[in-house]
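Quick one, probably user error.
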């Protein structure tokens, strides 16, 4: 028989008293057996991140991370990106196992405020588990007061966060992608939610970085009604760092800075020139034209427009008779340095993020400085790009598992094949920025076209006029070739003088009349 929330609370408080009433859990009925947090749940946050999950995904936080209102949280020495996340916390009152959405809220006893603090400096090697980045002591302050879940509408709760007195987060549960009851029901499919367990339900847009001396306050309430009160946490500077002999050290790059602060602008970084799908995407008609015209013809038209440095030199296709057409998605490797590879080479590094993010019709273009004595991708990444609908890959470095990569069927142009992995020559550093590949500058959104002659880069702004001019030139060259085959000398015909130009124009008029 299910316990009532009041009975569960009494039992929990008795257990706490026996345990010595640990002050860290003063705002809760007991020390939680489990703290379960969701990665992404608010539409505002999903829009800020540029990705919206189809289903909720979760991670665990240790109960030792719980803190109290009025307490402090330490930012470890040698780190810079301690981010706050104001959230609604649900406290389970009665055990829930395989409950439906309609019954799920009945297993929630209380609602309160929480701050899901995280250290982005430690995210790289956690691969989404957040064990180190979100498991630190005091990284989950909760409280200060519990709201009886039976008295509130779970669709009408509000969460607000203040940083040094300034309101920085403000959203309601109406903005959730997944309703609160769904989270309870979903988790109960996989394991028993027990009395005292805590579910952190995600943070809205506005999460950012807090520095030593900053004060973060979070409040959950029903507007005009019950409130958790303000959960107050002060950030302090830690004196202890991390030992490289025991595990990976903190490391940050511009991607982590942008995610921790909420945007590149907030982090003080230049705005990335990421692809704009509405502008850079190729219509089916334009794509068909680019497939039909040879790279050599496009190159000639670019030269006529003063663009001589648009060829990605030194790359060849892994297979013959392939055509590559798409818009650029860029990835940059820097020369290997052992300490930098330890911090940036493992985990969910820039290379993996780029292959996970590539979209349909896009080409991953890799800057590897023409250094082909190490692989810059292998068959697993080629399969991932193909599954994402990518148009192809161009790298001025090497390819591992070349035969297997070719067998995937996605067009790949490279400087050669090599069995070594990244760490021999390269560190994956950043993506979606202006790069140099095979001596050519490539920006995200540039149009990339490749065939057996090589690969060229076409600025998006002129691609329509270039391809139309190239197709017209192809028709003209085909007519000239036919005349040469008939025995006419090249002089005056290639290029055409005024007489031959008149004949060419007349041939088109004749063809049009026959067509009518």
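Nope, works fine. Designed sequence:
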């Amino acid at each position: 028989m299910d316990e009532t929330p009041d009975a569960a609370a009494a039992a929990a408080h008795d257990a706490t008293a026996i345990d010595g009433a640990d002050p860290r859990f003063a705002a809760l009925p007991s020390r939680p057996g489990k703290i379960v947090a969701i990665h992404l749940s608010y539409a505002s946050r999903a829009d800020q991140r540029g990705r919206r999950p189809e289903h909720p995904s979760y991670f665990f936080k240790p109960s030792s991370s719980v803190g109290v209102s009025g307490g402090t949280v330490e930012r470890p020495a040698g780190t810079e990106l301690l981010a706050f996340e104001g959230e609604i916390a649900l406290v389970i009152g009665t055990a829930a196992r395989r409950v439906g959405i309609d019954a799920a809220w009945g297993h929630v006893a209380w609602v309160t405020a929480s701050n899901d603090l995280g250290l982005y400096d430690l995210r790289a090697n956690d691969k989404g588990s957040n064990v180190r980045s979100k498991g630190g002591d005091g990284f989950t302050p909760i409280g200060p007061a519990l709201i009886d879940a039976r008295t509130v509408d779970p669709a009408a709760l509000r969460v607000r966060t203040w940083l040094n007195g300034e309101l920085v987060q403000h959203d309601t549960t109406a903005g959730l992608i997944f309703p609160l009851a769904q989270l309870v029901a979903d988790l109960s499919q996989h394991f028993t939610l027990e009395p005292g367990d805590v579910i952190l339900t995600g943070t809205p847009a506005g999460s950012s970085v807090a520095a030593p001396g900053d004060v973060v306050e979070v409040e959950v309430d029903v507007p005009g009604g019950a409130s958790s009160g303000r959960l107050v946490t002060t950030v302090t500077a830690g004196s202890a760092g991390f030992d490289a002999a025991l595990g990976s050290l903190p490391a940050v790059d511009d991607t982590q800075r942008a995610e921790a602060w909420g945007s590149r602008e907030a982090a003080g970084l230049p705005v990335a020139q990421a692809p704009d799908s509405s502008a850079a995407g190729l219509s089916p008609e334009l794509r068909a034209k680019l497939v039909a015209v040879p790279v050599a013809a496009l190159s000639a038209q670019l030269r006529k427009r003063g663009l001589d440095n648009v060829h990605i030199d030194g790359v060849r296709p892994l297979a013959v008779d392939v055509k590559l057409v798409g818009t650029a998605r860029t990835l940059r490797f820097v020369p290997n340095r052992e300490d930098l590879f330890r911090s940036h080479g493992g985990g969910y590094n820039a290379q993996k993020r780029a292959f996970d993010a590539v979209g349909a019709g896009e080409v991953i273009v890799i800057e590897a400085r023409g250094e082909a004595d190490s692989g810059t991708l292998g068959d697993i990444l080629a399969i991932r790009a193909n599954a994402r609908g990518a148009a192809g890959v161009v790298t001025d470095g090497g390819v591992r598992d070349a035969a297997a990569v070719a067998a995937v069927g996605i067009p790949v142009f490279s400087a050669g094949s090599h069995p070594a992995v990244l760490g021999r020559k390269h560190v994956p550093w950043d993506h979606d920025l202006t790069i140099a590949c095979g001596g050519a500058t490539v920006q995200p959104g540039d149009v990339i076209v490749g065939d057996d002659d090589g690969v060229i880069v076409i600025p998006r702004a002129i691609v329509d006029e270039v391809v139309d001019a190239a197709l017209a030139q192809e028709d003209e060259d085909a007519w000239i070739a036919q005349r040469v085959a008939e025995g006419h000398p090249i002089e005056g015909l290639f290029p055409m003088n005024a007489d031959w130009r008149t004949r060419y124009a007349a041939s088109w008029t004749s063809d049009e009349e026959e067509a009518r």
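The longest strand covers residues 324-335.
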